[in-house]
TrEMBL record:
<feature type="transmembrane region" description="Helical">
    <location>
        <begin position="567"/>
        <end position="594"/>
    </location>
</feature>
<feature type="transmembrane region" description="Helical">
    <location>
        <begin position="140"/>
        <end position="163"/>
    </location>
</feature>
<feature type="transmembrane region" description="Helical">
    <location>
        <begin position="19"/>
        <end position="36"/>
    </location>
</feature>
<keyword id="KW-0813">Transport</keyword>
<feature type="transmembrane region" description="Helical">
    <location>
        <begin position="297"/>
        <end position="315"/>
    </location>
</feature>
<comment type="similarity">
    <text>Belongs to the binding-protein-dependent transport system permease family.</text>
</comment>
<feature type="transmembrane region" description="Helical">
    <location>
        <begin position="494"/>
        <end position="522"/>
    </location>
</feature>
<feature type="transmembrane region" description="Helical">
    <location>
        <begin position="336"/>
        <end position="357"/>
    </location>
</feature>
<feature type="domain" description="ABC transmembrane type-1">
    <location>
        <begin position="137"/>
        <end position="316"/>
    </location>
</feature>
<feature type="domain" description="ABC transmembrane type-1">
    <location>
        <begin position="447"/>
        <end position="627"/>
    </location>
</feature>
<keyword id="KW-0472">Membrane</keyword>
<feature type="transmembrane region" description="Helical">
    <location>
        <begin position="428"/>
        <end position="444"/>
    </location>
</feature>
<dbReference type="InterPro" id="IPR035906">
    <property type="entry name" value="MetI-like_sf"/>
</dbReference>
<keyword id="KW-1133">Transmembrane helix</keyword>
<feature type="transmembrane region" description="Helical">
    <location>
        <begin position="606"/>
        <end position="623"/>
    </location>
</feature>
<keyword id="KW-0812">Transmembrane</keyword>
<feature type="transmembrane region" description="Helical">
    <location>
        <begin position="85"/>
        <end position="108"/>
    </location>
</feature>
Length: 640
């Protein structure tokens, strides 16, 4: 009895606090940095072996392009067929004439969503002519249609197959993960190596970029079809093919239409970047404007890309919603007749009006915009320069100095520890392998420079995303005002975000950070808002009834319970920021993005550009794996 009493009186052994191990690891890493700073660093070498090996491979491809069977009976035919398909779309679109194409867009809008959408289609595409970029816009549209057609021809069947087979889905998932993590630039260098430059290589790069989202959404649509409906079809004697054709595809039709919408949006984003490999259309004006730091020159093309994206987005989304609703039978023939009349009116007008968009109707916005930008640069010079310098002096330069002066093995140990703590052993080993790959490729120093820019941009993105997301979740009015702005921001191709950044800050590394923040904030805001709104109302009411204030409710209930959504927001913010920072290599961001751009522009640096494209993929996978599994970690228990 006395032993039992003594046992009861013995204080229970307490576990160490959860923060103790991370703090201890951080102290060890800091001590290692302070004692070994400047040793075992990996400076950049323009003559690194991987760069030279890729240059040799390029020379071999150039020499054997017309002799090797792989090119004679494979790559060359793909290039020819895609070039012919693009030429066919371009011929048809130009044959319609500018009034005919505007009429067709009006007809499609009338079919998809009524008169309001018809007016959007007519007004939007008429604006392309008013901006003075009609021919470039038609070429961009032809490239988008070519890419999306091929992407859907491959992606939709694969998506259906993955939706019906868990084994296929598991096999495709890692491939799709890599394809979606890859920054847009990383798609270009392999295309140049195999397909040269021009519409064919741009089409391949664009369709590969657009395909993963089509596969994923289609697979999700088929997978989520009610099992009851499938069982009922099977019980009636339907074969698997009949069940797919008569049950699964009709019930998944609305979501599959969303897959088509997203493929178009991804393609529009990519065709602008593909101008670096001589893709025709609006992208070439934007790239030339960026190289000259001339906002007025590239603004009409930038606006045209946004207008085209909005029109195509609204058309396909309206078509998706219409497919999911039942319409009265009498309205069908009349609707088609009206749409046909609109299209016919446009085609007839094309025979009466000049083939070229009239010069008198073009609004020349370039010169006044250039003057306005120059005025803003001089008027706000002190403010913008102060913001840029403070950010560089207090954040960018010190952080880059730390990363580049730290021994490579210590950075590797830090990445391994962080990924292990955040996501577990398997993602940690993947992240470590990617980091070591950067070292082996000879990209360590430039990768650290890119990582510096990404970390600063992600920090600002998450702060803004949390503030705006929390505000939207707690105020319906604020959310209603903010949502249209987020919709418009997510419709714009990524490179368009460089326009205001370039106008304000010139061609500097801060320009890439500013552009990446405004590019990545919208999805972060949406995820944070949805996560907080998804907290159980019962839990919120219980906290309020217990006397919690609004601040206590947010910090102790809503944010902890929305951690999964917030960590997903961080993951998406990192991936999108990396993609934009690499694009920022065109406006002075340096790092891997600059290497890729240099590889396109200078023949002797192709190897470095190609390897840098691979490096951006490795860096993206590393950052993705660090954050991807963080939401699966158990939530910390509240202790009394």
């Amino acid at each position: 009895m006395s032993g039992a009493v003594a046992a009861l009186e013995t204080p229970a052994l307490r576990r160490p606090p959860r923060w103790l191990v991370p703090v201890a690891v951080g102290v060890v890493l800091l001590a290692g940095y302070l004692t070994m700073r400047g040793t075992a660093t990996l400076p950049h070498d323009d003559e690194a072996a991987p760069f030279l090996a890729v240059n040799e491979a390029r020379d071999w491809v150039d020499t054997n392009r017309n002799d090797n069977p792989l090119f004679l009976y494979g790559v060359n035919y793909v290039r020819i067929y895609l070039g012919e398909l693009y030429a066919a779309f371009e011929t048809v679109l130009f044959a319609l004439g500018w009034p005919g194409l505007i009429g067709v867009l009006g007809a499609l809008g009338r079919l998809a969503g009524g008169w309001r959408l018809a007016l959007l289609g007519v007004g939007g595409f008429a604006a392309l002519g008013v901006l003075g970029v009609w021919e470039a816009s038609v070429r961009t549209l032809a490239l988008v249609l070519t890419s999306v057609l091929v992407a859907l021809a491959v992606g939709l069947p694969l998506g259906v197959w993955a939706g019906r087979s868990a084994r296929v889905r598991r096999a495709l998932t890692p491939v799709l993960d890599v394809m979606q993590i890859m920054p847009t630039f990383a798609y270009l260098t392999p295309m140049v190596l195999f397909f040269g430059i021009g519409p064919s290589s741009a089409t391949v790069a664009t369709l590969i970029y657009a395909m993963p989202v089509a596969i994923r959404i289609t697979a999700l649509a088929v997978e989520r079809v009610s099992p009851t409906a499938i069982e009922a079809s099977a019980s009636l004697g339907a074969t698997r093919w009949q069940t797919l054709r008569k049950v699964q595809l009709p019930m998944a039709r609305e979501t599959i239409a969303l897959a088509i919408n997203q493929a178009i949006m991804m393609a529009l984003s990519m065709v602008v970047i593909a101008a670096l490999i001589s893709a025709p259309g609006l992208g070439s004006d934007i790239i030339r404007g960026l190289s000259r730091a001339n906002v007025g020159f590239m603004l009409p093309a930038g606006i045209a890309i946004v207008v085209m994206a909005i029109v195509l987005d609204r058309l396909t989304m309206a078509a998706a919603k219409r497919e999911g609703t039942a319409e009265a039978a009498p309205s069908g023939p009349r609707r088609y007749a009206v749409a046909g009349a609109i299209a016919l009116a446009g085609v007839v007008a094309a025979t009466l009006l000049p083939a070229r968009f009239p010069d008198a109707w073009i609004l020349r916005i370039g010169p006044p915009v250039t003057e306005a930008v120059n005025w803003a640069k001089f008027s706000w010079y002190d403010v913008t320069t102060a913001i840029r310098n403070v950010t560089s002096d207090l954040l960018l330069n010190p952080l880059q100095d730390v990363l580049t002066s730290t021994p490579w093995w210590l950075v590797a140990a830090a990445v391994l520890a962080l990924a292990w703590w955040a996501s577990g052993p398997r993602p940690a080993l993947t992240a470590l392998a990617c980091l070591l790959g950067l070292a082996l490729l000879g990209l360590w120093e430039h990768s650290m420079a890119t990582l510096t820019t990404v970390l600063v941009a992600v920090t600002v993105t998450l702060l803004l995303g949390l503030l705006l997301g929390v505000a939207a979740a707690r105020s319906r009015g604020f959310s209603a005002v903010q949502r249209p702005l987020l919709d418009a921001a997510q419709t714009m191709p990524s490179i368009v975000y460089l326009l205001p950044a370039l106008a304000l800050f010139g061609a500097t590394r801060f320009t890439a950070i500013f552009a990446s923040v405004i590019y990545a904030v919208p999805p972060v805001v949406r995820l944070v808002e949805d996560g907080i709104r998804g907290v159980s109302p019962t839990t919120v009411e219980a906290a309020l009834s217990a006397g919690s204030t609004g601040g206590q409710l947010l910090w102790k209930v809503q944010l902890p319970m929305a951690r999964g959504a917030i960590l997903l927001a961080a993951n998406q913010g990192i991936v999108m920021t990396l993609a934009m920072v690499v694009v920022g290599g065109m406006v002075g961001a340096g790092g891997l993005g600059y290497d890729v751009v240099t590889g396109f522009s200078q023949h002797s640096e192709f190897g470095m550009g190609f390897v840098a494209g691979v490096g951006t993929v490795l860096l993206g996978i590393m950052l993705d794996r660090i954050t991807q599994g963080a939401d699966r970690r158990s939530s910390p228990q509240v202790r009394g």
